[in-house]
What does this fold into?
Amino acid sequence: MSAVLDTRRTGTTIWSHRQFELVRMSAIRQLKARYRGTALGVLWSFANPLMMTALYTVLFGTAFASYYGGSTHRYLFSVFVGVVVVTLFLQATGEAIVTVVANGGLLNKIALDPETFPLAAIMANAFQQLVTTFPVILVLAAVVTHDPLRVVLVPFVLAAVVALCAGFGIALSALYVFFRDLSYLWGIIGFIFWMTSPVFYPAALVPAGVRPLLSVNPIGLGIAALREVTLGKGPIDLGVVGMFLLISAVALVAGHLIFRSLRRDFMDLL
Amino acid sequence: MRTTLAADRARLTETPARAAIVLDGVSLTRRTQQELQYDLKRSMFRLISGRIARVQRRTVLQNVSLRVEHGEKVGIIGPNGSGKSTLLKVIAGILTPTRGTVDVDGTIAPLIELGVGFDLDLSLFDNILYYGVLLGHSEDLVRAHADEILDFAELREYREEPTKTLSSGMAARLSFAIATEFRPDLLLVDEVLSVGDERFRRKCAARIDRFWDEQSTIMLVSHDMLTVARTCDRVIWLDCGELRFDGPSQRAAELYLSTIPSVANFRRGEDLVKLAETNPRGEVLVRGTSGHPQLYLVRDGCRHPIASVEWCLLHDYSDTDLVLIDDEVIMQVAEGETLR
It folds into this structure.
């Protein structure tokens, strides 16, 4: 009764060269399809965070300035960092969730690792940010903090944000094969994540009794870590940064394991 | 030029130690479609009301063992749902067997069949590039071959057009061209010769014939015993997921035709002999054994020409009730009724 698995597929590690090529080509395909016929192309991924930041600053900037040392600028920077993280997370996971099912036709034709497709969706989104918002955040950190350690940590925190997206995206895309209404549920959960992340309001505004609940939200933690390295004052709080790096690594591994444990039945449902 | 049987046999005797394909006791069970829990909401209700649906599994392949040597041309036949296409998918590595082992030596072309997962918004060139890399070729190699692929598919002027501008026939041509451009060691063909118009079909057939003449190992799935018997030396006959026969195609053809529930010969004039087959689902196939009589399918009072018998099955015309040959009604069959 012992099942002997096909060595061609179980023998490959996730970052083999072929796997990397597949993810790269698949991500390029998504970017090409998305920006085909657009004038501004990848610059559109700037539009969303900039517009939201402007909106929040106009609406709440003066009201909440007192929580940001009386500076509307600091509020604006803080909102921008938060918006970048939360929009990247929601957009990347929202796109990744359907990818395995959407590529069911290909998976039924060519022997491929299905994890290629959610990973490619995450990579395509990460690339967009890499050429638009991420450099801005790095410059922001240098200008605001003047702290070499903080600036050095910025890429690590950004990489952790991407890893967090990947962990969730991979796991969701596997679950979506079995539950095709998961995308609606994820839309609601995404909104809860968005509202419970202190993006445009200061965390101090939330009643002390509720605040521990907010820290369950991994995106909130990511925003806190990124704000610490881009806008923080005085001695750096390595605790919040380290905690987020750890949690995003756990999310990535957990997402990968969930995917592996479910993929046995994929082909019967695609 | 098609190689002779003798030449094929001679080549088989000097095959290397490792066979092209070895399946050892392969069984495959799959989840049935009825038990699909597509819906989280419904699953939750089930869970709450204590009715946890057990996943139903169905055996699709049962203890299939076979060995195919390099350069062999093997036909796979069997009724609908007997596991023919599944067997190809197991060999291609798309499906992993529940039990048993699969050993394949060499590169495999994708399953050639109708309908491909092209990205409709991308240009033809980008789709070729993407597809080629998915097949395991380097980007540079695919780039170098892109124009040849477009030339074979006769779609060069569409190079930078989005793929959605292609008709379904054009898309099928492109998919065939990509799949066969990179000389695979192992070609898996699932009802291929219904691609495009008549002229392009002949072109495809010529290309397949070239593979036939060369060292490629070919596995061809078909409903059409006569095609298989004509083109393959060896036939594997699947029935309900089990290997029913594995041997010379002539012997297989005799056995196969003798088991079909109703084979009727129709005589109209001297030379036109029809062979009609029905399968248990009530499908009716009619073919002429002399020349190429035109086949029609009649639905809703309209007459549709049928490209081939395979086409009829592929498009699942299971409720066909009237078939015309040479513009003349030959038979009328109600569903479930058999020909006598």
